[in-house]
Amino acid sequence: EDKVVQSPLSLVVHEGDTVTLNCSYEVTNFRSLLWYKQEKKAPTFLFMLTSSGIEKKSGRLSSILDKKELFSILNITATQTGDSAVYLCAVGDAGTALIFGKGTTLSVSS
Amino acid sequence: DARVTQTPRHKVTEMGQEVTMRCQPILGHNTVFWYRQTMMQGLELLAYFRNRAPLDDSGMPKDRFSAEMPDATLATLKIQPSEPRDSAVYFCASGPRGRRRTEAFFGQGTRLTVV
Questions:
Q1: Is the Cβ pair B103, A99 closer than 8 Å?
Q2: Closest chain A residue to B34, measured at CA
């Protein structure tokens, strides 16, 4: 059965800290791995990764995929209170829709 | 500003009533997903369509849930009869054609409460 596991489930840090969120997966026909940020409402897209070893960056956020070890990490540097959210990892199988992990809840205190 | 539009945003209904949720995907997107989110289970896929054809609805309780795409601009999710355990946020998402088709853009969700 396809599955996506995220760790840690929750994390509390101080502003300015750097955090690393983990996502491991098992899917039959991997196509892509996506990261989403969910605040109070809908998940919003952050990154899509399809190739190993290529880092995607957007401001203070970056992500990388390891298709051999079947995991991805999402890094956030110099965290701000606005980074507080649930971060969701999802994996796309070649034939089906996205399978989501349970998410990591990040709380950044000032 | 292209976005997925869901209606209603909130719905409170009594057990046994029919509930219909609607979704307008982003224009030009040909994939539509229905997800349900609860604290316990997270985001679960209920059904998805590509080019209006249902591809997977294995996550949906067939006895009470049904999903349709009457046309390319409207997707519906119906629950009949509704039960308290159906209380959740229901998200519709749409995906573009081509190589990025597994990417999903989410609507704001319908928060359903069944009492």
A1: no
A2: A97
